[in-house]
Design brief:
With 114 residues, this protein is mainly α. The chain is 52% helix and 0% strand. It is rod-shaped, with a radius of gyration of 27 Å. InterPro entries: DUF5338.
C-alpha cells in the first residue's frame, strides 16, 4: 500500500478539492526533490520551470517561491539546533589603534601642494 502522503496527494488531486489544496498537494509530493535540487545548487526558478514544463507543478512562479520559503527554507531554519548561550561575559570591545593612519579631508597648511 502506498504511503499516506501519496494517498493524500491522489485524493486531493480530485477536482472537488480546491485549487489551493491541489497546488499544495502537488508541491508536497515534490518537496524532497525540490529540497535536493536546491541543495545541488539549482535556483528556485530553474526548479519551478522544469516542474512546470513537466506539468508536475501548475502554480505560478510567485506561489511556488512562497511555498519553497514557507515549507522548505523556513522549516530548515526552525529545525537547526539553537546555539547554547554561555555564561561567559562578552569580551570587551576592541578599540582602534590611534597610532596608524587617519584621514582628514581638510589639508594641513604644511602639507598643501602648490
Amino acid at each position: 500500500m502506498p504511503n499516506l502522503s501519496y494517498r493524500i496527494s491522489l485524493r486531493v488531486k480530485d477536482n472537488r478539492s480546491s485549487r489551493n489544496a491541489r497546488n499544495l498537494a502537488a508541491f508536497l509530493a515534490q518537496r524532497d526533490e525540490i529540497h535536493n535540487a536546491l541543495g545541488d545548487g539549482w535556483t528556485i526558478y530553474q526548479i519551478w520551470e522544469t516542474l512546470h514544463a513537466e506539468q508536475k507543478i501548475t502554480t505560478s512562479y510567485n506561489t511556488f517561491c512562497n511555498q519553497v520559503n514557507r515549507l522548505i527554507i523556513k522549516r530548515e531554519g526552525a529545525a537547526l539546533p539553537k546555539k547554547k548561550s554561555t555564561d561567559q561575559s562578552p569580551s570587551p570591545p576592541r578599540h582602534a589603534d590611534t597610532t596608524g593612519f587617519t584621514f582628514s579631508s581638510t589639508p594641513l597648511k604644511d602639507e598643501e601642494i602648490l
